[in-house]
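As a warm-up, study this chain.
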Amino acid sequence: MTNPIALRLSRGHRRGALLLALLFAAGGLVTGQAATAGLALPLTGDGQSMPSLAPVIEEVSPSVVNIAVRGSVEVRNPFMDDPFFRRFFGTPEQGPGQRRRFQSAGSGVIVDAEQGYLITNHHVIENAEEITITLVDGRELTAEVIGSDRGSDVAVLKVEPKNLRAIKLADSDASRVGDFVVAIGNPFGLQHTVTSGIVSALGRSGLNPDGYEDFIQTDASINPGNSGGALINLRGELIGVNTAIFSARGGGNIGIGFAIPVNMARAIMDQIIEFGEVRRGLLGVNIFPVTPSTAEAYGLSEARGALVVQVAPGSAAEEAGVQIDDVIVSVNGRKIDDPNQLRNVIGLMRVGEQVRLEVIRDGRSRTLTATLQETGTLAADSGDAGAIDSALEGAQLANYTSSRPNYIGQDGVIVTEVTDGSPAAQRGLRNGDIILAVNRNRVRNLTELQAAIDGSGAVILRVRRGNQNLLVPIR
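Now compare it with the structure written out below.
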């Protein structure tokens, strides 16, 4: 229903009133409780006060940088990796591919002025050989990569810590739908572009089935080049790192953008600075979503949580007492709505960290304490493939040797089970597949498989399926 008061306002005064209401709600300007960055009401020519975000932007802009990346990627002929193509044409296996040079641009945020640390996206600096950042005052500095994490799309850079200004970090857990936000970045090469909007939703996930996601959704315009830039509140504090959009065919903004919450980015950054990588903890369970029919069958009051369908032997979950048919409904007091949320929460915790699990068992709530193990630790002969790489999640693997039935005369790693709809299934793995090589590197057991995948960018498995050999691209 149309507001009759708004209809009586002139176009210019109506816009001013709406903006004024916006800033009143954000900073308490009527009472003089201005935001920390010093929001002010400048006087217009007719003597009337008009609100402005300019003081906030002026305060924050020195902390947001433009990033220029130069690098190269390997270009390969996909037909040359096809064993049937090579056999038909009599061609040898493909050697190293050609290198293609590229240039790209993105954004970043200075989070530690004394040490010279910046946060950006992993995809902004992936395959970078030379990184140059440009500050708002025009200075150009060379940056080095301290480390990056593909799963969360967070990267940490370091520059010479000279005359830098760090942004203030907010508590992103305190963000609410409807909060006003501002995005600052380098869209389409237009340096230090500012757009505004609101928090449209919280806790978004599912954009990348391999990633760890808990996105802030916003309608502030985010376009190519904004990646790695700042999403701030009206106090000039960083609440998120812009990372992705839903876009039209032309790649432009349609009002649906996503930012990594700063609490999540900070946790990843701390591990990268300390270890040079992210050491994720592993709980050791396979889980399914709780549907309404499942909730009814298990006597649950609502259809939420993660149903445990398998507990890995010797895992943190088994040692904590987690059992099949348990429904995990919270971790450290944080409510768990679905398996993706549980995976994200656990995936952001460190090896050795203790977690408090609330589970529903036989209709009663129980609290269990688990100490997370290191991701990538598998039993000597078998285990959950998700511990090797998130792209293999949902597959169970075992060493394949002459002691196995139907031995084909080649040691490898056999896929003993694949969960329907899992990342492993989506990539084409099937029960009974025997993995013989990774990126043309022969693997004979789980240890060699993990060593071949660790640190690799693209991963292509050579698989024996029945009487055929085929390639299965994983990432």
